[in-house]
Write a structure and sequence with these properties.
Elements (H helix, E strand, L loop, with lengths): L2 H19 L18 H4 L2 E2 L5 E2 L3 H14 L4 E5 L11 H5 L5 E6 L2 E7 L7 E5 L2 E2 L21 E5 L13 E6 L10 E11 L4 E14 L4 E20 L4 E6 L9 E6 L2 E23 L4 E24 L7 E4 L5 E5 L3 E25 L5 E14 L5 E7 L11 E4 L5 E4 L11 E29 L2 E21 L2 H4 L38 H8 L2 H4 L5 H9 L8 E2 L5 E20 L2 E22 L2 E5 L8 E4 L3 E23 L2 E12 L10 E4 L6 E4 L7 E15 L2 E25 L2 E26 L10 E11 L2 E12 L2 E10 L2 E4 L8 E3 L2 E11 L4 E8 L6 E5 L1 E10 L3 E9 L1
Parallel strand pairs: 6-9, 34-37
Antiparallel strand pairs: 1-2, 3-8, 4-5, 6-7, 8-9, 10-11, 10-47, 11-12, 12-15, 12-46, 13-14, 15-16, 16-19, 17-18, 18-22, 19-20, 19-21, 20-24, 21-24, 22-23, 24-25, 25-26, 25-27, 27-28, 28-31, 29-30, 31-32, 32-35, 33-34, 35-36, 36-37, 37-38, 38-39, 39-40, 40-43, 41-42, 42-45, 43-44, 44-47, 45-46
Length: about 900
């Protein structure tokens, strides 16, 4: 038996022994109060004697979150709204990042994905009222910006599992709870409206939300509805290189002998201005019926639609090693300057929308026939889609200004470490602009889940055995991907053809002077809309400039007279997962002397069957690239293909908790967990890049096994009072069957291609420690007794350090808060852009808010996010090898909240 296997068995046996041999003379039942699967508002509020729910602000929300943490049967952290639909941040992901060990990545400056304890988004399960929610992403990772914070009243992040939890999150399980009608007595109305201001865009945009809940029929029926709407106008600035080409040789004087070898250089650099809107409309509806004292029916539905219409106006330059006639190299073999590019300068309009829609509908029956026996049955359906296919666009033009020569253009890493080009001529002169490569393209995604869960619990009275529970679950999930693009024959219809772009196509130039403080540009650069250029290129005025107008018209006619997209079968497919599972769990509790203790031990079984479907196509030939274009890959006719896979796992877990001193709680846990391969990796798809220096093929792998983790956790928490605590947590995760991209070289048609395919390649271990605490200074004299602080730091081997600090004040009608979040630099992937590592620089962001209650019904508030304009910076190994430098700037809000 392997040493690590023996250790895991000993750990499980040790936990079982602790639970079974704790003195059976215990006279009292230990705590067995897991976080409830619903009714979060009830936990976040007090009930007055007359039944009216009273919400008492930030301080009370911290107390409720502390109660949840202390009473839970496993190790978790919680965030509770301090008012109806009012989490402490504007975005769910941005609220979750305040929890120890949680960091986020952003889209358009807003939190989207989470990383927990150094493990990426795919390693955490996201639940909505206890159910898996479909996601519009190609993988499993959940986009937390899909759901507005106004609809969520509580978020639990479970860092150790119980057997009762649905499997899938090696890192954590995140459960988001909404309000239910029976959380309130009578009728409740809440409304909120605010104006958002994004500094770079310089425009105000609206945001509103509301909730209505009522009960009737002597309180046996209830209905609740809530909505949220935002139309945020934003603008981002970005420098992007698409990675650095490594191990290149430079023959500067073209004599056959390279002056530099093994160097890295950027062959493409762009500067983009993205003026866009983020529009989201979300709503939920919940109905409850208390059929009897023992039966409660709940029906609920969710709808959310997020449209992000990125409209990036881009200036770019490209070239390769063969274009360079002079260069300098630093000690890292990074090209720090060179002279000579292939062509340009160029402009394009990148249209990159995100058109996501999410639905969920569910039915739940709660049955409580006696004080000891209870059960639930839950069925739900969820569907998400992103209708991006065919809606992305790239329409480029070469400015070809008469006042410059590509051979004289000079690249240098500027004083700020960013790429700067000089010698580009008068870039505002568009008189000689020529049309080039064009395409509509994109991938649409559909994700549909049917799931059911049944649970039964019996509260025992058998000494230290306090509860026996068990359950069954099933799910049927299908993730489909549909790829589209403009036919290859039309993409380069105008490449190198000398077709001019008329002045009427150009719109307002993009302000770019001293772009992001880098010294690049001393003026704006020209722009146009892809739709306007497309319309012109389909006109007789453009087509007649081609060498063979008749052939061009025939090619267009064959595609319906436009640049419309066609399906790409080889890059499309689906993966279907059918899972069944069940669990048995025993909960224990009692007194060890004068100290209460509790715990649980259980095992979950899960079986997964996978069916992957796609289309096989062989590469028949590759047509050489036309001037300014890409080579064309000619494929055989698509043939349907299908592969299957299956696996099963037993997942034991144990949690233990004891009051080692008064108000000092020790928790320990050990569990076997799994995370299934991300769905996009299971697809039978193939993506081909035929560019000579970049030849690459990316495949899926339906045979991937799940990643398995053994988790070991311990936490010691001192509860200073109901709202204050200090805590330290240790954790270790040993992962096997890790799925990572493996690259090899294959030959096709006599050409070398880099083939990248996900494989279960090995194991990895994570070790970490977390320190956290919060304190309310209620013992200070007024008005200082309204002060409070929260702070945490997480250190994870090998390279993750995060910390949060929050200071707040709440006294009378005034509530104020300032928060800082930091994540150190880390490696995002070993094989990213151009097959090279991608590193993310350290990121620290300041947010602040202030609320003032005019009376019990009306509160005014103001917020500021990213107050000091922190920028996202990605690089490859060394900071001079810039990949992305981006910001969407600070954003502010002014608003009013009404409660009745």
């Amino acid at each position: 038996m392997k040493p690590d296997t023996r250790f895991r068995l000993l750990a499980m046996a040790g936990m079982a022994t602790v639970l079974a041999t704790t003195p059976a003379t215990a006279q009292t039942q230990g705590a067995d109060n897991p976080a409830p699967p619903a009714a979060p508002v009830q936990d976040a509020t007090n009930a007055a004697d007359d039944g009216e729910i009273i919400v008492t602000g930030l301080r009370e929300s911290l107390r409720r979150a502390t109660d949840i943490k202390r009473n839970a049967d496993n190790i978790l952290d919680s965030i509770v709204a301090d008012d109806i639909g009012k989490l402490p941040d504007q975005n769910i992901a941005e609220a979750i990042q305040r929890i120890p060990g949680v960091t986020i990545s952003r889209d358009n400056g807003e939190g989207q994905f989470i990383t927990v304890r150094g493990l990426g988004p795919a390693f955490s399960s996201a639940l909505y009222n206890g159910r898996i929610l479909a996601t519009e992403n190609q993988g499993r990772e959940f986009s937390f910006d899909i759901l507005p914070a106004e609809l969520i009243n509580r978020v639990d992040v479970s860092k150790t599992p119980t057997a009762a939890q649905i499997e899938g999150g090696i890192a954590a399980t995140v459960d988001m709870y909404t309000a239910r009608p029976f959380d309130f007595s009578g009728t409740k109305v809440s409304l909120s409206g605010q104006a958002n201001y994004d500094k770079i865009r310089g425009q105000f945009s609206p945001q509103a939300s509301g909730l209505f809940s009522t009960t009737f029929g002597d309180g046996d029926f209830g209905i609740l509805g809530a909505f949220s709407y935002i139309d945020r106008k934003i603008e981002g600035k970005r420098i992007f290189t698409d990675g650095w080409e490594a191990n290149q040789s430079l023959d500067l004087n073209k004599d056959g002998t390279a002056e530099f070898t093994g160097v890295s250089l950027p062959t493409y650099v762009e500067w983009g201005t993205n003026r866009t809107n983020r529009k989201r409309l979300s709503g939920l509806l919940t109905a409850q019926w208390r059929a009897s004292d023992t039966l409660l029916f709940t029906l609920d539905g969710l709808y959310s639609k997020l449209d992000v219409n990125d409209d990036n106006k881009v200036f770019f330059v490209y070239g390769g090693p063969g274009d360079i006639t002079a260069a300098t190299v630093d000690a890292n073999n990074t090209i720090t300057s060179y002279t000579g590019i292939a062509s340009g300068p160029n402009i394009t309009n990148q249209v990159r929308p995100r058109l996501a829609t999410t639905y969920q509908a569910g039915a739940n029956l709660a049955w409580n026939p006696s004080d000891r026996l209870s059960g639930t049955v839950d069925f739900s359906w969820s569907k998400a889609s992103d209708d991006t296919g065919g809606n992305q666009a790239w329409f480029e033009s070469n400015l070809a200004t008469p006042s410059y020569s590509p051979a004289g253009v000079r690249f240098a890493i500027g004083p700020t470490g960013m790429p700067v080009y000089t010698g580009l001529g008068n870039i505002l002169d568009t008189s000689n602009a020529k049309a080039g490569f064009l395409t509509y393209e994109g991938v649409s995604v559909e994700d549909e889940i049917y799931q059911g869960n049944a649970n039964l619990k019996w509260d025992a009275d058998m000494g230290i055995l306090t509860r026996i529970s068990g359950g069954y679950n099933f799910s049927d999930r299908k993730k489909s991907r549909f790829s589209f693009k403009t036919p290859d024959a039309l993409q380069c219809l105008y490449c190198g053809a000398g077709v001019g772009v008329p002045q009427s196509v150009f719109g307002r130039p993009a302000e770019a002077t001293n772009f992001l403080g880098t010294g690049m540009f001393d003026s704006a650069y020209p722009t146009y809309a892809a739709a306007d250029l497309a319309s012109y290129l389909l006109s007789d005025a453009a087509i007649n400039q081609l060498a063979n107008p008749a052939a061009a018209r025939a090619a267009l006619a064959a595609n319906g007279g436009s640049f419309a997209v066609i399906p790409v079968p080889g890059n499309s497919g689906s993966a279907q997962e059918r899972t069944i599972g069940g669990y048995v769990q025993a909960t224990f509790g009692g007194d060890f002397g004068s100290r209460a203790w509790s715990g649980n031990i259980g095992v979950r079984y899960t079986r997964t069957d996978v069916i992957s479907r796609g289309f096989g196509q062989e590469i028949v030939s590759i047509t050489p690239a036309p001037p300014g274009g890409d080579p064309i890959v000619n494929l055989s006719a698509p043939q349907p293909i299908r592969e299957t896979g299956s696996y099963a796992q037993w997942l034991p877990s144990a949690n233990f908790k004891i009051d080692v001193f008064e108000d000092v709680v020790l928790q320990a846990a050990v569990a076997k967990t799994l995370t299934r391969a991300t769905l996009s990796d299971l697809l039978l798809i193939r993506n081909i890049n035929p560019r000579p220096r970049e030849r690459a093929i990316t495949d899926g792998n339906p045979g991937l096994e799940p990643m398995i983790g053994w988790n070991y956790d311990a936490a010691l928490t001192w509860y200073l009072d109901r709202s204050s605590f200090l805590s330290v947590a240790l954790f270790a995760k040993d992962l096997n069957n890790i799925s990572e991209s493996v690259t090899s070289t294959i030959q096709l048609l006599g050409l070398d291609f880099r083939r990248t395919r996900p494989e279960n390649i090995g194991s990895r271990s994570y070790r970490g420690i977390e320190f956290s605490g919060q304190y309310t200074f209620t013992g200070l004299p007024a008005p200082l007794d309204g002060l409070g602080v929260q702070a945490n730091i997480s250190l994870v081997e090998p390279d993750a350090t995060t910390y949060n600090a929050v200071a707040f004040y709440e006294k009378g009608p005034l509530q104020a808060r300032i928060a800082y979040n930091y994540r150190n630099a880390y490696e995002q992937t070993q094989q990213g852009n151009r097959g090279q590592p991608v590193n993310v620089d350290a990121y620290g962001i300041w947010d602040a808010s202030i609320n003032y209650a005019l009376n019990d019904q009306v509160t005014l508030f103001a917020q500021g996010l990213n107050l000091f304009n922190e920028k996202t910076f990605l690089y490859s190994v060394y900071k001079e090898r810039v990949i992305t430098f981006e910001t969407y700037g600070p954003r502010y809000a002014l608003g009013v909240r009404l409660n009745f």
